[in-house]
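Annotated sample (chain length 464).
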Amino acid sequence: MLYCAHGPVPAAGRLLKEGIDMSKFTGKSYRNQVMYSVFVRNHTPEGTFEGVRRDLERIRALGTDIVWLLPIHPTGEKCRKGALGSPYAIRDYRAVNPEYGTLDDFKRLVDEIHRLGMKCVIDVVYNHTSPDSVLAREHPEWFFHRPDGSFGNRVGDWWDVIDLDYAQPGLWDYQIDTLKYWASMVDGFRCDVAPLVPLEFWLRARREVEAVRPGCFWLAESVEPAFVRGGRAGGLPVLSDSELYQAFDVCYDYDIFGVFQDYVDEKRLLKEYAQAVNNQEIIYPENYVKLRFLENHDRARAAAIFPNRKVRLNWTAFLFFQKGMTLLYAGQEASCTRQPSLFDRDTVDWSAGEDISALLKNLAALKKHPLLADSWYQVTALPLDTLLAVHRKGNRQLVGIFDLYNPSRTAMMDNHFRIEAVSVPVEAPDGLYPNLAFPGETVEVLRGTVGVSSRPIIFEAPVG
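Output written by the structure step:
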């Protein structure tokens, strides 16, 4: 029998001796795609599948390739956070939340997503359930228990859930059968705190689901380095991104998100963030795909962390320019500053701020550029928070110049006043090039430099 960090691996896990590394099947084309995240409860005033279905034409027009639905299942009632409970405290993996509609309503939503040429991904929350879940009632032996025999969890602030125990063979079969059931309808899964579930389980699940949904898409919510370090120090097995890439197509950008957040909070320099991005190019498989985001349902809104419009739009353009899949969280296109609650009805305010849909459409079109999928990628931080990013392959390159300078950001700058225009050196022939971020605008390369504009600059040029 094989062993994993959570205990003995069930007999079916012997298939792992084949040594299959699922990451070899991940296509780089995922780097050309845009994912749009929807919390059904808060997306529309009615908070239903039908409400989301009526908004799909607009969502598709943003350039969306994949619609990710936060958990669609019934939420637990015991130990609820807030009035309605967290969607991540699931009561029944094999049912839909009746507040959202019926199973037929869900199928109509998925059918419409497919009709519009998009894929549908649903959340999989396999580390834990609500305390009053179907599984807790029918199979209490499949759960982690405290020394006194009571249910519990291994992450203290998640007091509204109880943890599953993957040392139990029957749990593996049930969970994989559940995945195959939903895979008959949807195109993939976003797996919540995937590092807390054994890698051997994910490998087996992927192989078996492939028979039901060939090409099924797998996204891991990988975790911050501090979570990995702290968990392992406390005896909690936690998978690293490098391990997860054996089973998943895409991992979260949390491995460097802390550096980004420290830069925002003026605790680090931009060059430290640039170096963190560059390090990803050498520590992960050559076909690695990161989920790039400025905000998500667990994080503050981009419009809140970047109140300066110019800075926010430049970061948004850089988001699409990055090597990886782009994530938009519903309301980001409306420049919402309020982060919707996960525990109560808190409908997105679509009139909250500036509508940047036109920019997002332009950037989503740019996202399809072949160099954004397959290239050598380098990011360089220049003085006064100018970011130069380059995708290069052969003698062609995409150059991105992003003006992140914010005069109110002073703590980490030697000189926070721009006395003269900033010029960026580029390895491109002199001439005029279309600005791909803003159709109709041009970029001039003069004597091997480009003058920084307050607007994002992206252009394609020969190397030289």
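Annotation: The mean pLDDT is 92.
Annotation: Residues 375 and 393 are 5 Å apart (CA to CA).
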